[in-house]
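re: ur question from earlier - yeah i can do the single chain one, its not a big deal. heres the input i used so u can compare w yours
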Amino acid sequence: MSSLVNDKMMNRIFSVLRKESATHIIFWSILFLLFTVVEGSKGNMLLTIKKEIINIGFFALIVYLNIVYIFPKYVENKNLFGHLLNLFVIALLITPIKTLIIFFLHNNDPQAQATLLKNQIYIFFSTFLVGLSSSIYSIFREWLRSQREKQELQKQTLTSELRFLKSQINPHFLFNTLNNLYALTLKKSDLAPEIVLKLSEMMRYMLYECNERRVPLSKEVNYLKNYLELEKLRQGKNIKTNLIVQGEIGSQMIAPLMFIPFVENSFKHGISDSISEGYVNIEILISDQDLQINIVNSKITRLSPPNKIKSGGIGLVNIRRRLNLIYPEEYILDIQDSPNEYRVELGLTLVH
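and the output i got, formated as tokens:
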């Protein structure tokens, strides 16, 4: 059993040294040089070098005992008093051994030996403080590691949620468009082939270019234009659409399929045969990194069946979730619902 514990401790020591060997070597070398320069100016340089090798050796001893054995016990038990007591005992055991070795190193200097014996309390406290410093370092390192793991977990969670939400948006849009196409094919409309071409171009964008977290704003606007053209073909004279883009589209990047749920909702719930002149007006304002899209559509005054409202809300629920995930403090969403009109104003801070 004792052999097993010793092997485990040695494995920990070698693991620590192997992972950060260069950093440890540089740190102890710098510390040794500083101590040697300070003490060497007071007398025999060769004696100083021997003494500082012993000092550094015992400092390293308590540091590595703490890192590989004492501190892991503290992490496991969360007993601060017990941890400090362990450091205290180790420093108490090291002090006389270290004093004895340095004592024999000064065998030709009785005065130095007497001073050494008198200053054992300082040797003890210096050893204890070095051990305590390694605990503070270990706590800081553990905190950094936990922060990295937390950030990685958040990133993975964000990626998986965005992937899931986007997968809901794409079939939702496709389902509605195919329904419209099916209705036109039943009527043997000449518009069906053109709709197929537009849909093909849009699906290519969704399948091959929307897999990144950000896409060029220019492609997202072009996708929106294709969608509007498709709706014009489908709706015919029953609707008036107007798209205005103000500002310069350059290298700005935006989360993919960010506009389409709002626009789709405008057509799905704002256009009906009961409205003689339905309309959807879209205005995109671009100013460097700031973007605002305003969508205003006519509204059906009659009440829709409850299940239809629920179905139509899927895209909007998802887009709110995506905004909170991707632009947590970089967007403003204002939705105004009046008796005859529905208005959406979305402001985003983009990246280049």
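The domain at 189-349 is CATH 3.30.565.10 (Heat Shock Protein 90). not sure if urs matches, ping me
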